[in-house]
Design brief:
Elements (H helix, E strand, L loop, with lengths): L11 E8 L3 H14 L3 E4 L8 H4 L20 H6 L9 H14 L6 E2 L4 E7 L4 E6 L4 E9 L21 E4 L14 E5 L3 H13 L2 E6 L6 E2 L7 H9 L1 H9 L19 H14 L3 H4 L9 H18 L3 H7 L13 E2 L2 H4 L5 E5 L5 E4 L3 E4 L6 E3 L2 E4 L7 H5 L3 E2 L6 H4 L18 E3 L12 H21 L5 E3 L1 H15 L30 H13 L5 E3 L2 E2 L9
Parallel strand pairs: 1-2, 1-6, 2-3, 4-17, 6-18, 7-16, 8-9, 8-16, 9-12, 10-11
Antiparallel strand pairs: 4-5, 5-6, 13-14, 14-15, 19-20, 20-21
The structure holds ligand NA7.
Length: 556
Amino acid sequence: MTNPVDAAAVELERDAVVVGAGFAGLYALHVLRDRVGLSVQAIDQAGGVGGVWYWNRYPGARCDIESCNYSYSFSAELQQEWQWSERFAGQPEILRYLEHVADRFDLRRDIRLGTRITSATWDSGRARWVVTTDAGDRVIARYLISGAGTLSAAKEPAFDGLDSFEGQVYSTARWPHDGVDFTGKRVAVIGTGASGIQVIPHIAAQAAHLTVFQRTANYATPIHNGPMDPEFTRLIKAGYPGLRGRSRDNFGGLPYDLQAPSALAVTQDERRRVYQERWDQGGFRLSLDSYADVFFDATANATAAEFIRDKIRERVTDPATAELLCPTDHAYGTKRPPLETGYYEAYNRETVDLVDLRACPIERITATGIRTTGVQGADHPLDAIVLALGFDALTGPLLRMGIQGRDGLSLRSHWSQGPRTYLGLMVHGFPNLFTITGPQSPSVFYNHPLAVEDHVDWLAGCLSHQRARGIDSVEPSAEAEHRWGEHTDEVASGLLLPHTDSWYTGSNVPGKPRALLAYFGGAPAYRRICADVAERGYQGLLFDGVPAADGPGATV
Ligand code: NA7
């Protein structure tokens, strides 16, 4: 076996390698370099900063959280100077914001773009990570900080014959920078998750004909986007500290009120009034701000589900199409609820058809289109196919990096039955590896920029603590990791969510082990746990192989 640290091949030594230049990577670079004082190299495969907002450029791409919430809170100046033009910013504006952050905090000089990490190997002898890139060089670093994202590894299409298609194939997760003109084209969209639901109205308005291939109908509800009102902007800016505080005290990191406990404790009229009010407010209000037991109780959930199905039936003219668009095979909120503008109305166009892949699955893609089978199987002639198939969420970005920890242990084999972490942030056997918004942390259940800031701030404290004591390596004990996994499972046990096939559970990717990939204990409880761990001297961690503090690890 060759020594991973071959001095002749080393090009760069840094204290830390940060993976990614999206929300997580940019903030990690800023804090570790400018607050902790480390030398840092950030690396991103993309040609620019922005993470998912660099790649997902399809028409209609938009954040599903209000921009005054889906933004960094760490800099009062940044909050005051940045103007959001819409309530829910579109992809171009979020990308401009992240580019501004990179410039404002002078981050670009330490970001290497257009470079993919091909492997990261822990060298125990030197207590360093050896990170190789597709440029053929290496960076040697004490810490490996992943800001690789949660929804950044696009699912690979596995349709027979895709290569034989003579038209154009596009993926929402890798949209061409110059845009696409579908005028006069016969277009297919495969996939009706959040991405498909955002792009479909735009393609429907432009293409000569659109065929949507739907496997699972979704509970999409209106986003109710609009321009930012100057008075609203003024109020937000005047109240940012309170707003962020309330967000961090909320389960999902949004400044919403406490949900009422039960949809079943009120009359049907009252329930419908609440649902209608949340529907009118838009965003995630309906799912996150109505009744808590919608997430736990199938009967309570059914009341919300039926409310949404009624709305779909009102909006879609053709009753048969409306029924196909009504989800009946999973509970509301057990897939991330897509937010839409004009999605259902798109099906009222004469030029838009819906194909039910449950009744007639795709047999293959031919040179000229898509062939479905089953009773209503048909050949659909096409000029372009848009794939909106989703992501290998949370674990995918980490596993695709080729990470090897102590004694050659690969992360892929350590996670062969699903992710195993401590706090969703560290992994036993992988010293000095930190996974920002990693699996088994609140991540996708917590407003992303705040989740990122919490993790990076905690990490900065942990690294400062170690460095002050001359500690070379940190990793969780096997017991702490085991207990965190048990706790994560226990928190999820009463939920409806694990029973649905979705990217939350990994079941959208063939062969991926089924596990609820994020921690469902909520931001306030999780923040308390992390603070307790630090206050108790980093309980559950091994510093240079020795328990950092007495006790087995995070207690809940
Ligand atoms: P999603 O929500 O995972 O949606 C992917 C869609 O693609 C969904 O409708 C899938 O159907 C469909 N799909 C996936 N594979 C296939 C195959 N092989 N055949 C037919 N249809 C398929 O991903 P999105 O990108 O839309 O959204 C991801 C998140 O990004 C979103 O939640 C927001 O947080 C932002 P299925 O439901 O699996 O039957």
